[in-house]
Design the sequence.
């Protein structure tokens, strides 16, 4: 059983939901990535989504775009990101790490080499935003052969045929984009999310994490009441970019502890 599957099973037994924070590797500078990853775990992260910086993102709003720009200023490449995960694994053998990014860096690296090296570095899964299931059966198979979980996006506009494709090809969990727009967009329609999640979970057969538009403990707790996982990215990036030098890890930990506590409290009252 993969680290991701083991994590969701442990949380299911505990009656808790997964907290999945996102940061961009190399932001605000490469030396801060390891302390920030450790800060996420200290704050209660169950799985870490680590963004691979890319110059022309499609799904990222202005906040995460700025994070990528800062990271790219330092030359943060996919190979360097794998090195960061390798360093993280020297200190943490348990917390799953999912790389989130775009096809170009993977294509330049080579799919088989990426899967091999990512697995060797300690990566557990990959979510490549612009690899739709219709076009990446071979890539998904390559990841699975290397022991990695291919993770896919679903959106409010996804049709049920897409659910079936994702269920057949993906593993680990599904990332449900809660609204039409980019990361950091407007407030979530919780009623709409609550209506869709049971059907997605039933058709896909995997835990469903919800992201986009979750910015605080209250919204995280509301999502945790209907989903299997809560994904938070843009708000954490804002904390990082607004923090004085050296203070970002502590501030990120403090923020996540509040989110974690709200999610757990919601679970106990449900």
Sequence:
């Amino acid at each position: 059983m993969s680290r991701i599957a083991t994590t969701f099973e442990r949380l299911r037994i505990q009656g808790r939901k997964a907290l999945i924070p996102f940061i961009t590797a190399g932001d605000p500078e490469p030396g801060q990535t390891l302390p920030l990853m450790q800060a996420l775990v200290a704050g209660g992260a169950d799985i870490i989504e680590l963004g691979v910086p890319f110059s022309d993102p499609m799904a990222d709003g202005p906040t995460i775009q700025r994070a990528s720009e800062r990271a790219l200023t330092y030359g943060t490449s996919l190979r360097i990101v794998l090195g960061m995960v390798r360093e993280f694994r020297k200190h943490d053998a348990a917390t799953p790490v999912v790389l989130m990014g775009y096809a170009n860096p993977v294509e330049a690296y080579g799919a088989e080499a990426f899967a091999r090296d990512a697995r060797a570095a300690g990566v557990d899964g990959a979510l490549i935003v612009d690899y739709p299931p219709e076009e990446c059966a071979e890539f998904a198979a390559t990841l699975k052969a290397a022991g990695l979980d291919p993770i896919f996006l679903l959106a409010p506009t996804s049709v049920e045929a897409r659910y079936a494709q994702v269920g057949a090809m993906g593993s680990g969990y599904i990332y449900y984009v809660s609204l039409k727009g980019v990361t950091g967009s407007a407030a979530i329609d919780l009623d709409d999310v609550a209506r869709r999640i049971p059907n997605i979970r039933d058709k896909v057969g995997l835990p469903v994490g919800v992201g986009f538009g979750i910015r605080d403990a209250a919204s995280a707790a509301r999502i945790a009441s209907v989903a299997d996982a809560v994904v938070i990215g843009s708000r954490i990036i804002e904390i990082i970019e607004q923090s004085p030098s050296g203070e970002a890890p502590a501030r990120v930990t403090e923020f996540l502890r509040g989110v974690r506590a709200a999610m757990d409290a919601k679970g106990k009252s449900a």
Summary: The longest strand covers residues 18-24. Residues 181-185 have pLDDT under 50 and may be disordered. Residues 156 and 180 are 7 Å apart (CA to CA).
